[in-house]
Amino acid sequence: MIAILNRINNRIQVIKQMLARSRYLLYKSEHKWTVEQKERASLLFERYTEIQKFP
């Protein structure tokens, strides 16, 4: 049970980190993104498709 709770907690922390690190790429033009930002954006838009719909 503790192992399951630890995995859930770790996953929540990873999601929070991804969202925190992604906020700046949303303000930049896509052609100015670094390789890491492109990878992060791909994961972000895969999980939160409604964010990608905005111009």
Concise overview:
By secondary structure, the protein is mostly helical. The protein has helices at 2-22, 35-47, 49-52. α1 (2-22) crosses α2.
Describe this structure in words.
Helices cover 69% and strands 0% of the residues. It has 55 residues and is an all-alpha fold. Helix 1 (2-22) crosses helix 2. The model has no long low-confidence stretch (mean pLDDT 81).
List low-confidence stretches.
none
Mean pLDDT rating: 81
* Count of individual domains: 1
Largest sheet report? none
Calculate Rg over CA atoms: 14 Å
Distinct helical segment count: 3
How many E-type strands? 0
First-residue to last-residue Cα separation: 44 Å
Query: Beta-strand percentage?
Result: under 5%
Q: Which class of secondary structure composition applies to the elements? A: mainly alpha
